[in-house]
Amino acid sequence: MTVQSQLPTVEVLIVEDDLRIAEIHRRFIEKVEGFAVVGIATDESQAKEQLDILRPHLALLDIYLPGSSGLDILQYIRQHYRDTDAVMITAAKEAEAIREAVRSGAFDYIMKPLIFDRLQETLLRYLDFHRELNRLNENRSISQSDVDRLLAGSAKKESSPEVSFPPKGIDKLTLVKVTQTISQAPDGMTAEQIAKLIGVSRSTSRRYLEHLVSLGTVYADLSYGVVGRPERVYRQKK
């Protein structure tokens, strides 16, 4: 099953042994227009079964799985489901793992902890790549400039410094915790509320929230409490 010229919803299979993390990834993916999660597999056996049944357009693979490796599943996909693309989302930081993923045709390789902006960037590039590929399929002949444009679109764009390399004083893991917490609060939360949930001080919570405000992923409003003292309430941008 290929991504057709009309670009229907891209069906995604998540392969992740931690169901809590898989659920976070599912919510992130479905915030991006044009994508839908059709299955979650927690091991190699489930992944192969769901690949056979669902034939997804895209698989998000962790490397560390019980009794196997996501790299083995990636190679299996290349051998049996060549119309399914793959993105690695993993804590594996070894150069050899990255090299093997690239050699096996992974569309992208994203380090955990996953940040929404980084995943969104990859998914949008994935759509752009297939739009361009479908456009080329309609042409009788393809020029070198067409090929260059296609490959340039699939190449990883530079992420913003704030996302790839947080500024001094911003820990990536804590940033992910704050981001995930605020994403699950449609009515917004104060710095103090988030601090209690993730186990940091109020000042630390506010520093991370203001960092997210500066990135444009979160906005803040003033809310007046029972004593009339204004508080900043943070909400994730839709």
Layout of SSEs?
Blueprint: E1 10-15, H1 19-30, E2 35-41, H2 44-54, E3 58-61, E4 64-65, E5 68-69, H3 70-80, E6 85-90, H4 95-103, E7 108-111, H5 116-137, H6 144-154, H7 161-164, H8 172-183, E8 189-190, H9 191-198, H10 202-215, E9 218-224, E10 230-236
Parallel strand pairs: 1-2, 1-3, 3-6, 6-7
Antiparallel strand pairs: 4-5, 8-10, 9-10
Helix pairs in contact: 2-3, 5-6, 8-10, 9-10
Entry summary:
By secondary structure, the chain is an alpha/beta fold.
Task: Characterize the structure shown.
This protein is α/β, with parallel strands linked by helices and 238 residues long. It has two domains: 10-158, Rossmann fold; 164-236, Winged helix-like DNA-binding domain superfamily/Winged helix DNA-binding domain (Arc Repressor Mutant, subunit A), CATH 1.10.10.10. It contains ten helices and ten strands. The chain has helices at 19-30, 44-54, 70-80, 95-103, 116-137, 144-154, 161-164, 172-183, 191-198, 202-215, and strands at residues 10-15, 35-41, 58-61, 64-65, 68-69, 85-90, 108-111, 189-190, 218-224, 230-236. The strands form three sheets. It has a five-stranded parallel β-sheet, with helices on both faces. A three-stranded antiparallel β-sheet has the order 8-10-9. Strand 6, helix 4 and strand 7 (108-111) form a beta-alpha-beta unit. Helix 2 runs parallel beside helix 3 (70-80) and helix 9 (191-198) packs across helix 10.
Keywords for this entry:
5-stranded parallel beta sheet; 10 strands; Rossmann fold; globular; alpha/beta; single chain; 238 residues; 2 domains
